[in-house]
Amino acid sequence: MPELPEVETTRRGIAPHLEGQRVSRVLVRDHRLRWPIPEDLDVRLSGQRIMQVERRAKYLLINAEVGTLISHLGMSGNLRLVEIGMPAGKHEHVDIELESGLALRYTDPRRFGAMLWSLDPLNHELLVRLGPEPLTDLFDGERLFQLSRGRSMAVKPFIMDNAVVVGVGNIYATEALFAAGIDPRRPAGGISRARYLKLAIEIKRILAHAIERGGTTLRDFIGGDGQPGYFQQELFVYGRGGELCKVCGTGLREIRLGQRASVWCPRCQR
């Protein structure tokens, strides 16, 4: 599933081609996504100028003059720019055609993504309860420490909780915990303030670096410019269960936490 760096990479790729452009038509070939695409999306969006493309957690917000298109890439979706009229494949469900002659094309083989319309997107039911963005000053180690008190759940699913902080998905939670030297199985409430301060710093550093590297290429992800990300080449533990730790040479272990695969080094993480 595309995580925050992949979504931010997509935003950066498509924004310069969308912002300031007027929508000439919205062509929906298949309304059946995780939630049905509104039947009147073409009526609502056509003729409007796109003012800004933003991101909130893993949602892309395409802000028009009146209203916002909320898009989620699901497990296998991607958005890329094509020329209007380019033949569409089986899983290419939506084209947002622009007066520039380009179209923003949404592809989603598994149809777990979303394209929804809202006049008040930040208060939409999917976004209103989200925690702070990890790369802002609203998120820090003190927040993690305070929210973790009395929590018996493992620290990895704790930092992946979108009410705690958004966008720390499986890949980046795994890597940040390794960088901070914290065993992902440890109870969240038993970790000290000092260690949470370190963990928050590593979350910010790793996410920022992954964005600059274009995200992590896993299965179907391609950025908005059609190019894959390159952060996968720098992963220390994610997806490397049974291999040797790049730091100490110990065999990496793998279990499931919160229904997700978790890899860690029994020597570097405690």
UniProtKB/TrEMBL annotation:
Cofactors demanded by this protein: Zn(2+)
Keyword Endoplasmic reticulum in annotation: no
SUPFAM superfamilies: Glucocorticoid receptor-like (DNA-binding domain), N-terminal domain of MutM-like DNA repair proteins, S13-like H2TH domain
Keyword Disulfide bond: no
The entry's keywords: DNA damage, DNA repair, DNA-binding, Glycosidase, Hydrolase, Lyase, Metal-binding, Multifunctional enzyme, Zinc, Zinc-finger
Active site (catalytic residues): P2, E3, K58, R260
Transmembrane segments: none
Any Pfam family the entry gives: H2TH
The protein's assembly and partners: Monomer.
General function of this protein: Involved in base excision repair of DNA damaged by oxidation or by mutagenic agents. Acts as DNA glycosylase that recognizes and removes damaged bases. Has a preference for oxidized purines, such as 7,8-dihydro-8-oxoguanine (8-oxoG). Has AP (apurinic/apyrimidinic) lyase activity and introduces nicks in the DNA strand. Cleaves the DNA backbone by beta-delta elimination to generate a single-strand break at the site of the removed base with both 3'- and 5'-phosphates.
NCBIfam families: fpg, PRK01103.1
Xref: PANTHER family: FORMAMIDOPYRIMIDINE-DNA GLYCOSYLASE
HAMAP family: Fapy_DNA_glycosyl
Protein name: Formamidopyrimidine-DNA glycosylase
